Amino acid sequence: MDHLSKLAFLAADVLLKKADFSADTEHNIAIILSNRASSLDTDRTYQASIAEPEIFFPSPSVFVYTLPNICMGEISIKHQLHSENCFFIFDSFNADHLWINTQSLLKQKKAEKVLCGWVDFDDKNYEAFLYLVEENGIIAHTPNEIKRLYKT
Q1: Which residue stretches of the chain are H helix?
Q2: Angle subtended at Cα 73 by Cα 95 and Cα 134, rounded to the nearest 5 degrees
Q3: What is the pLDDT along the chain (152 residues), one digit of tens a residue?
Q4: Which listed residue, of 48, 102, 116, 143, carries a Cα 20 to 30 Å from 152's Cα?
Q5: In Å, how far are 12, 70, 91, 107 from 25, measured between CA atoms?
Q6: pTM to 2 decimals?
Q7: What are the two backbone dihedrals, phi and then psi, of residue 144, each rounded to the nearest 5 degrees?
Q8: β-strand 125-134 against 113-122: which pairing, if any?
């Protein structure tokens, strides 16, 4: 597993272990993630494996992680999620975009809960901010509240 997937996987695991999963129902949790670096950290590793013709050996185990959305697949496999997911790339954390997409999924009943956030890994710099939201949560799900939580 690449560094981005490990970061997303561990952060999601902390939240989803506490989620109220009923043993009788499918886990209808969508995933909306974003970051700045996409899969650049893994892309560099893959590029290094094919850069020199004399030692050209592309690694399928590295290549599979050259898309940022693979981290959502790792989360979905672990927690048996079969729902909507989307990964966005922005220059910086974008609470408004997370809010709009989450509200759309919840209002259209495409998900009961949405795992949202920012998971970024590039070289030695990394950051994870995830939250789980549902239609009638305890904390108001607004762009301003998301920004406030992200900053704390």
Answers
A1: 3-17, 40-50, 60-63, 70-79, 95-107, 143-151
A2: 45
A3: 999 999 999 999 999 987 766 544 567 999 999 999 999 999 999 998 888 888 777 888 888 888 999 999 999 999 999 899 999 999 999 999 999 999 999 999 999 999 999 999 999 999 999 999 999 888 999 999 999 999 98
A4: 102
A5: 20, 25, 37, 20
A6: 0.90
A7: -65, -40
A8: antiparallel
